[in-house]
Amino acid sequence: MPDFALEDEFDGVVAGVDEAGRGPWVGPVVAGCVVFANRNVHPFLLDNLNDSKKLSKKKREQLFQLLQDEAQQGHIKIGIGQASAQEIDDINILNASFLAMKRAIEAARIKPDMVLVDGNREPKNFGYSTKAIIKGDAKSYSISAASILAKVYRDRLMEKMALQYPGYGFEKNAGYGTKTHIEGLKNRGVTPEHRKSYAPIKEFLKLDNSEA
């Protein structure tokens, strides 16, 4: 379970960042940023923060709302950033993830002295001191909270995208390559929101061009 041990290794403002949406074939990659300015937050929050993938949708939604509430009270600083499918195609998913993280920090309106980044890669030319934390969303409260922000926000984006592009199952698969998504690609083709640099989408584009 996460705690504040990693945050306590550093002086000053320590932010946690994490992303959601590296693997999907469609839509933006979204990042969250969280700083615990005041640790006197709702006990439910600290008792339940964890890697967002280990939490139920209901629990994630509860924590997402609680993070919003704590931010309004000034106990924490939060920010959400994203990089579009076009940006992912232009600079690759890793760099796009880091770009989304930088935008999330900017959205939080903070200047962190240290940024704890979930994963095993530290961004280059990031503008902030960083420390990569493998499985950080299960170790650090800040990263865990950021992972929940990013996951819930992105899921909601994909639910809206499902209304714009029905037939792909985005509201359930979040853009991953499920059977419903593949059927949608076969029947309806590639949308403007698909990541055209991803191998499965490249294959569908080839098919579309060969049939044209």
Number of helices: 8
Strand order of the largest sheet: 3-2-1-4-5
Order of helices and strands: EEHHEHHEEHHHH
Strand content: 15-25%
Low-confidence stretches: none
The shape, in one word, is: globular
Assign a percent range to the helix content.
40-55%
Distance between the first and last residues' Cα: 53 Å
Structural class: alpha/beta
CA gyration radius, whole angstroms: 18 Å
Chain-averaged pLDDT: 95
By DSSP, the count of extended strands is 5
Main sheet summary: 5 strands, mixed
What does this structure look like?
It is a single chain. The chain is an alpha/beta fold and 212 residues long. 45% of the residues lie in helices and 15% in strands. It is built from 8 helices and 5 strands, in the order ββααβααββαααα. Strands 3-2-1-4-5 form a 5-stranded mixed sheet. A hairpin with an 8-residue loop joins strand 1 (14-20) and strand 2 (29-36). The N and C termini lie far apart (53 Å). The model has no long low-confidence stretch (mean pLDDT 95).
Could you give a quick summary of the protein structure above?
This protein has 212 residues and is α/β, with parallel strands linked by helices. The protein contains eight helices and five strands.
